[in-house]
Design brief:
This protein is about 25% helix and about 45% strand. The chain has one domain: Immunoglobulin-like, CATH 2.60.40. By secondary structure, it is α+β, with helices and mostly antiparallel strands. Strand 1 and strand 2 form a beta hairpin. It is built from 4 helices and 9 strands; from the N terminus they run αββαββββαββαβ.
Length: about 190
């Protein structure tokens, strides 16, 4: 006669807990940031990086905003000169953060952009994001810093993250990502 002992609770619960954590992490990053039309051009002697950002998974973002979160779209651009064996020298850098929140009294979403006095508002989040993030620009400095015949790389890092987390809480949970969508980096190589 062979007798089997039941497995301890920890042995049976561990695989289930691992599966739940994997599915929860996948759901947390169900949305993604999509870049459109990354262009570098000269506007009145100023080097401008122009691009648009779209969000896949607007339903998840809607839920976060309606639950009281304030989100920020941070765009960081770095322009480097190519040609060295080692690190390429950085020529210019620029950064901007746009804040997105939901006003439960007016039932509207509000998008605050740097350089604009009044926020953009709309009851439909998809329309607001298209109007506010469909065409963005970053001032990279004077066009004269570019040298003719040189190759350059523009690296653009975009991330969508929660902005209303207190610093003490961020430091306590330093291992936790506050990004709503995974950070994405795009590169544009060009010769002047």
């Amino acid at each position: 006669m062979h007798c089997t002992r039941p497995l301890p609770l920890a042995a049976t619960a561990a695989p289930i807990l691992a599966l739940v954590l994997v599915l929860w992490a996948a759901a947390a990053f169900a949305q993604s940031l999509v870049l459109s039309n990354l262009v570098v051009d000269n506007q009145a002697g100023t080097l401008m990086a122009r691009f648009g950002v779209a969000v896949d998974g607007v339903a998840e973002i809607t839920e976060s905003l309606q639950n009281g979160a304030t989100l920020g779209l941070t765009c960081k651009a770095k322009l480097s000169k190519n040609g060295g064996l080692f690190a390429s020298p950085q020529v210019a850098a620029a950064e901007m953060t746009s804040r997105l929140k939901f006003d439960s009294l007016t039932r509207e979403y509000a998008l605050v952009q740097p350089g604009r006095e009044a926020p953009l508002k709309n009851a439909r989040l998809d329309e607001l994001l298209r109007a506010g993030w469909g065409e963005l620009t970053l001032d990279m400095g004077s066009w004269r810093m570019l040298e003719r015949g040189q190759e350059y790389t523009l690296a653009l890092d975009i991330r969508l993250h929660q902005t209303d987390i207190p610093n003490w809480f961020r430091r306590t949970l330093f291992f936790w990502s506050w990004d709503v969508a995974p950070s994405t980096t795009y590169q544009l190589h060009f010769k002047y």
